[in-house]
Design goal:
It contains 18 helices and 19 strands. The protein has helices at about 20-40, 55-65, 70-85, 100-115, 175-180, 190-200, 245-250, 250-255, 265-270, 280-295, 325-345, 355-385, 400-415, 420-440, 445-450, 455-480, 485-495, 510-515; strands spanning about 5-10, 15, 45-50, 95, 120-130, 135, 140-145, 145-150, 150-155, 160-165, 185-190, 205-210, 210, 240-245, 275-280, 305, 310, 315, 355. Helix 2 (about 55-65) crosses helix 3, helix 5 (about 175-180) runs antiparallel to helix 6 and helix 16 (about 455-480) runs antiparallel to helix 17 (about 485-495). The two termini are about 45 Å apart. The relative contact order is 0.12. The protein binds one RNA strand of 75 nucleotides through strand 2, helix 6, strand 12, helix 7 and helix 10.
Length: about 550
RNA sequence: GGCGGAGUAGCUCAGUGGUAGAGCAGGGGACUCAUAAGCCCUUGGUCACAGGUUCAAAUCCUGUCUCCGCUACCA
């Protein structure tokens, strides 16, 4: 793979109706790792995440709470930002769909679709809840009293039809099929691509992109006769309605790249290198979205990664089920680094995975406290003791150098392939090799022999500990995107400078520094060993509340 | 119903024709640099079930059972 000059990565924007659960932030952590990885490699990187704020539901919820939609989403945005900070998420922009430039972007995308002849006024029919709005067929209940809205079971649903704008998705079927065939990497994992391709081949229907009832949304910029919906005073004619769902939410990806105002930025960042999304919205991102972009004369994103769910005892974690983990609780116990590591090591990024508080704590203790943390600690302690704080130079002692070359190649392949759990497993196999080296060489025995005047033992001791220090340096650096808070502390204990900023920007090109012996010429002094990942006693490791 | 995926040790999973594997959890041991960590050894499986092909099947074929994903307008 040739190095990118720039890397633009996004997550789905979460629905701003509540505080975020860990399962919501899971994909954001995954994307953050890739963003940091590319920043550290030296790529010009842009990482976009944010919040979806419009919808009838939001307006309804705000009304129930006696507040305005804007005030309501402001509160939830604050909760998201707090949780993302705790998880060390480093977006270059946290986008909100109420941002003025996003509103302009969505309206411009609609205008372009219109200019291209891709949207038309048609009839949208469906169940309408007087208390809430239109309901999808899958969202209504059949009861003895008739069809009812699950949120308002006492109110009779009405079958309504209204004039709405539609996008001619049907016109893009052939182009979509061709795109999927010519770019097999467009949708990953492969089984998701096959599902989407099957859907396309089944025939595509146009979908509606406006609503006439809702007011909490982006004003639709065009009147049914094709004239502008903007009034002389600059406001928008309510009769034009609002933009519905996908022509609002999906647009955030181009807004975040500078569309439509900042042409220079947009030229640089679009098309996105990767959209990270959940499997529930795969169709919208891999079928609707390319068609919307093409209609506007823009390119489709290069790659869409579809991840699975976090499960609790086989059930999807969700706010409505109440079976989710609070990210703030997890961070309080495991730390931001621990929470990130455990989440991405324990959950496969390509499929659903059952998780639990116990599994998180077990993984933290086994991998971070016992394997890696203890390796750092014992290495630094011994080196300090035997060499009086002077860092032993990497020596041609053991087999770790060759193992590292293999480890790194596999690690990069899996990391860039979004298989984070496999990437970490690869790295931790190397941690195991380093721990086994300690027991095989028994530096404490070498030190004793050295003290007794054995020159061979002296040389051997330096070489072994030099290699162990180097192994610690490399693992700390390679894992830095996963544990961005702990990595600088690990390197500081090893007596190395950490040249990267808090978000991973700046510093040396990471791949150069990840070569075995890259810093061999640099002398340094070790700091006192301090446990980076204190072991968690299971009694203390109980979530505050369900 | 159609298409696709999965059923392997207590848990999570790897293993696409040649004597059943890993990590974690459980048990034992030797050591002591270390966060009572690490290291070594070990208990544990009729590889969903029934047939078939083959010298040989977790692996290929047929059938059955179970679970999951997709099968259009939720943010």
């Amino acid at each position: 793979m040739s190095p990118h000059d720039r890397y633009y990565i996004t997550t789905a924007i979460a629905y701003a109706n509540n505080r975020p659960g860990l399962h919501t932030l899971y994909e954001v952590v995954g994307a953050d790792v890739l963003a940091r990885w590319h920043r550290m490699k030296g790529d010009r990187t842009r990482f976009l995440t944010g919040i979806d704020e419009h919808s009838v539901n939001i307006a309804q919820r705000a009304a129930e709470l006696g507040t305005t939609p804007k005030a309501f989403v402001d509160e939830n945005v604050a909760l998201f930002k707090t949780a993302e900070d705790a998880l060390l998420i480093s977006p270059d922009r946290f986008i909100r769909t109420t941002d003025p430039d996003h509103i302009r972007a969505a309206q411009e995308m609609v205008r372009r679709a219109y200019a291209n002849g891709d949207i038309y006024v048609g009839d949208y029919e469906g169940w309408y809840c007087p208390a809430e709005g239109f309901k999808a067929p899958s969202d209504v209940l059949e009861t003895a009293q008739g069809t009812r809205c699950p949120n308002h079971p006492t109110v009779a649903l009405q079958w309504l039809s209204e004039h709405n704008w539609f996008l001619r998705l049907s016109a893009y079927q052939e182009r979509l099929e061709k795109h999927f065939e010519e770019h097999p990497e467009f949708v990953q994992p492969d089984f998701r691509r096959n599902e989407m391709l099957g859907f396309i081949r089944g025939g595509l229907e146009d979908f509606s992109i406006s609503r006439s009832g809702a007011s909490w949304g982006i004003p639709f910029p065009i009147m049914p006769d094709g004239s502008s919906a903007q009034l002389p005073d600059g406001s928008w004619n309510p009769a034009a309605g609002t933009i519905y769902v996908w022509y609002d939410a999906l647009i955030n990806y181009v807004t975040g790249a500078g569309f439509p105002d900042d042409k220079e930025a947009f030229e640089l960042w679009w098309p996105a290198d990767l959209h990270v999304i959940g499997k529930d919205i795969a169709r919208f991102h891999t079928i609707y979205w390319p068609a919307m972009l093409w209609s506007a004369g823009l390119e489709a994103p290069r790659r869409v990664w579809v991840h699975g769910w976090l499960l609790a005892q086989g059930e999807r974690m969700s706010k409505s089920m109440g079976n989710f983990l609070d990210p703030v609780d997890v961070v309080r116990t495991l730390g931001g680094d621990g929470a990130r590591y455990v989440m991405l090591r324990e959950v496969a990024f390509d499929r659903d995975t059952d998780v639990s508080w116990d599994s998180f704590v077990r993984r933290y203790n086994a991998d971070l406290a016992n394997d890696f943390g203890n390796l750092l600690n014992r290495t630094i302690s011994m080196a300090n003791r035997y060499f009086d704080g002077e860092r032993p130079a990497v020596g041609p002692a053991a087999g770790l150098a060759a193992a590292w070359t293999e480890t790194l190649a596999r690690y990069i392949e899996r990391l860039e392939g979004c298989l984070f759990h496999d990437a970490l497993a690869t790295l931790w196999e190397f941690v195991g090799a380093a721990n086994r080296l300690v027991d095989a060489e028994q530096p404490w025995a070498l030190a004793k022999a050295s003290k007794a005047g054995d020159q061979d033992a002296t040389r051997r001791l330096k070489a072994v500990l030099g290699d162990l220090v180097e192994a610690c340096r490399l693992v700390s650096l390679a894992a830095a995107p996963f544990i961005p808070g702990a990595a600088p502390r690990a390197l500081a204990q090893l007596g190395y400078e950490y040249g990267y900023a808090a978000d991973g920007n700046g510093g040396p090109a990471l791949l150069d520094d990840l070569r075995w012996g890259a810093r061999a010429e640099q002398a340094g002094r070790l700091a006192t060993a301090e446990p980076l990942f204190p072991r968690i006693e299971t009694e203390a490791a109980t979530p505050a509340a369900g």
